[in-house]
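Subject line: Sequence and fold of a protein, written as structure tokens
Area: Proteins and the way their chains fold up in space.
Start of record: The labelled sequence and token lines come straight after this line.
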Amino acid sequence: MNWFAFICEYDILIVVIINKKKNMNNKKEETKNKEENIDEKENRIPVIGEKAPSFEAKTTQGKISFPDDFEGNWVILFSHPADFTPVCSSEFMTFASMEKKFEDLNAKLVGLSVDGIHSHIAWLRTIKEKLVHNGIEGADVKFPLIEDISMDVAKKYGMIQPEESKTEAVRAVFFIDPDGIIRTLLYYPLSLGRSFDELYRILIGLQTADEFGVATPADWQPGDDVIVPPAGTSEEAEERMNDDSITCDDWFFCKKNISKKEIEKKIKN
């Protein structure tokens, strides 16, 4: 036997096997990267100014086509981690108690979790019949609660945050205007209940900015002074400095007052 030839053939065989393993590992890595990229695209967080991602879903109030069914209304779309959990229960009681206040601002509430419709129904019945929070008792949740077992809707809105939970939605909130455009978004961890006074303030602030062409300063509340946009020309800046209805600390920092009554008359139904 030609041992030299045998050893050469053996070495070649080993090299071939190693290369095949490398190729297999590379393909596995490529497949994994593709899957991760697809998952990232599916679970992408929409941004302010974008059209709200559309979907059809089964809810506790029947099937909906979103956002088409809500055209002409503001919508607060929010997610919660799971039914029959304490923080979520307190939030739903609060939402139910404030639903009329949101409706007066032409806003509809739409909830979501990755639980099924029967779980939703049983949980909402329990909330109404047994639970009490901050003096809220017998809370009747009448707004739609989306069934999203597949997590398809949650992923469209980036509500699944894998580092927080791979199986539950975080506490996301989307403010969507009557044209179906995302105007504000908030994300809370599983352990932190939302501030409903702030959600209400955000809605009024967005509508006030739209109706009056102004901006709202830090900690603004309806009836407080609002920010007048900076003047576009030197002449306009000079006129503004002499306008008794506008207070200017400098040319770029001007405020005026819009009464709470005036705001409510403009934005409330």
Remarks:
- The chain has two domains: 55-194, 213-267.
- Confidence is low (pLDDT under 50) at residues 31-38.
- The CA atoms of residues 232 and 249 lie 17 Å apart.
